[in-house]
Fold each of these.
Amino acid sequence: MTAVPLDSFRAELERLRADAESALSAATDDTAIEVARVEFLGARSGRLKAIQKSLGGLAGADKPAGGKQFNEAKNAITASFEAARNRVLSSSGLQSESAIDVTLPGSPVRLGHLHPLTRTIRRVQEIMGRLGFESVDGPEVEDQWHNFEALAIPAEHPARDPLDNFYLAVARGADPLLLRSQTSTVQIRVMENRDPPLRIVSLGRVYRPDTADATHYPMFHQVEGLLVEPGITMAHLKSVLRLFASSFLGGDVHVRFRPSFFPFTEPSVEVDMEWGGRWVEMGGAGMVDPAVLEAVGYDPDTVSGFAFGLGVERIAARRYGVDDIRDFYRNDVRFLRQF
Ligand code: PHE
């Protein structure tokens, strides 16, 4: 077998090197570079690999020179390959130092804020606080006594119907528990633990079997107010509600009472407020029924009191001009961002 002449080996290497350089300098994207890499530097069937195999065909004395030339060509092609890759990367902006332009304005951090219902609750607490009403909390999971019986709503009372729902599973024989249907429960809890005089407000969630529509939802919030002292009358009730409404809505707000019925107040009224030429129902109120005062151990001959319960969503909707309370719960930032 005749040996491969060193000259033709070198000529072959030179041709390969020129081909590789022109392919790489023409490459403008990753794909073209990869195609060139496989063609020239590919470990199995790359053209460089093929030439490396023909090294073995050189005459023994030519082998060191041939090997040296081979290595030079291989290094040169590898360097061209790196150069081409950097060129493509930087033109796509990935590695360029100018990819971050520090003179551009930064992206603003958008600050959140309190939910309009939370804002309303805090504002109610603040206004009522100025009138001397302390803010207290009560549990959302209630027993029958606080949700119904102590409020003069016995088991067979028709007033239970619209409220009676959302019972929790309890052990057989245990007292049933339910999600409270009104914040009036807190009146009882406070009166059981404290002596008059008493001025409290309690704000929180209540639950009812209501079908959701623009003014109803199975969960909503109430403000409960309770004042018990000697000599309290309906005039105090109306004054407090009017002061509250005027502070909350701003301007001169009128309050109207319509006769109503609640088992735990006597007399009982529905409370409407007029603001901007429109009357809106805001909740219920009345004088605490003497039977309730007795049930918590107060003497109805020495103290009297009033109580009211207003819908937080309703007063918030009124104040912010919202006409569907479901918007408060949808968590759509396009809605919430407006407040
Ligand atoms: N708890 C009553 C309701 O939810 C409202 C109310 C509160 C009425 C206090 C009278 C006194 O409808």
Amino acid sequence: MDLRSRNGGSSRLRPRTVLLALAAGAALLAPTALVVPAANAAATTLGAAAAQSGRYFGAATSSFMFSNSQHTTILNREFNSIVAENEMKWDATEPQQNVFNFTGADRLVAHARANGMSVRGHALVWHAQQPGWAQNLSGTALRNAMINHINRVAGHFRGQIHSWDVVNEAFADGGGGGRRDSNLQRTGNDWIEVAFRTARTADPNAKLCYNDYNTDGINAKSTGIYNMVRDFKARGVPIDCVGFQSHLGTTLSSDYQANLQRFADLGVDVQITELDVAQGSSQASIYERVTRACLAVARCNGITVWGVRDNDSWRRGENPLLFDANGNKKAAYNSVLNALNSVSGPTNPPPTTTPPPPGGAGCSASVSLNTWNGGFVATVRVTAGNAAIRGWTVRITLPGGTAVTGTWNAQAGGSTGTVNFGNVSYNGQVGAGGSTEFGFQGTGAAPSGTPTCTAT
Ligand code: G3I
């Protein structure tokens, strides 16, 4: 149902303690993989219960809620994943073009790190909650702004996000199964794949998800998305997961699980990303069925509820969450916990990528490109040799007619011809075998030669 049309472990096993001891950046990517309680130890929190099968159980929250002790006590006790309800969206992170504000989102990520939680990123690109300046853009200007936004935001949180909702809600409701009209869609039908390719280079370790609502069964909209994912997989567009928001009413489609499974069978993970269920006699049983559906699909990584207490919910007056306004556990909570405790066996190992160090001292550089007709984004990886370096310069020769229009995490000494990109203050020092990245965006043909790297 389209809700927007109506308004818009056991305490013996302390997973969070274990995680705190291990937390160090990459641990945020998949902490649940580190925490597998012994079989038959019924967990007493949602996060610990989900971790028994290698899954996460998360909640949407906002950094301003951390001062609410009841909210935060429940959040820290029950959940091992969080997502920003609003603070990672385009309007929050880039209020003016190329001026970024990560204040709230950074607090959220720091809270996750301090409490051994993983982070879902929501959402890099969406037709809604765009800042005013983006709403007023179109065509190439909007496309370039989108690419820059993804590079900067996913780059800022690089290595700290378990899964990114790269594109949110791009399909239309109704029977057609086609794309939603939007300023982004009007930049060209390839905007979604450009977003995914850009996100992959900006944060290679994050799972990249497409996220939508009214996809709670096999219907025209979910089939439209299914066809897109199948096409992306066939053409090598980097997509790792599909998010099913699951803003549910008083009934649940009988093919909810089958729908998850058909996506998983395409070779992507699936995640329940914004679960909330209308109050009423069916609330607890729908929560249970959704939980059991995720548990029954091996590639279902985890479940996120869209808020902690009923009074935190965007669905005012509908009491759709697992805790009431006094912070008490509801019947729906118990049905979810019992369902999670009924299954064990870890799945979903964390992604790992470790670039091999080049031989010798000095540095090397490699470029990966996202290109489209008339422009490109280059992501350049600078890797130190077998000795630490204190600074670097990468020299790249651009084809005639090509111009650099924006650079991040480096300083460009020019915009055409042969351009030297030097480190900035925070990324010049690279340990032996370590690497760092910068990027630039340009108009015209992409560079094709081999970059040279000089350690300084
Ligand atoms: O922060 C401002 C405040 O300063 C201002 O006074 C007030 C006046 O309206 O607005 C406040 O911002 C609101 C924001 O929530 C924070 O409360 C926005 O107006 C309001 O539009 C925004 O609503 C969010 C909505 O997305 C925006 O579309 C909801 O909190 C959030 O739960 C909801 O989440 C979406 C997911 O991102 C995508 N899937 C559907 C889901 C539910 O709509």
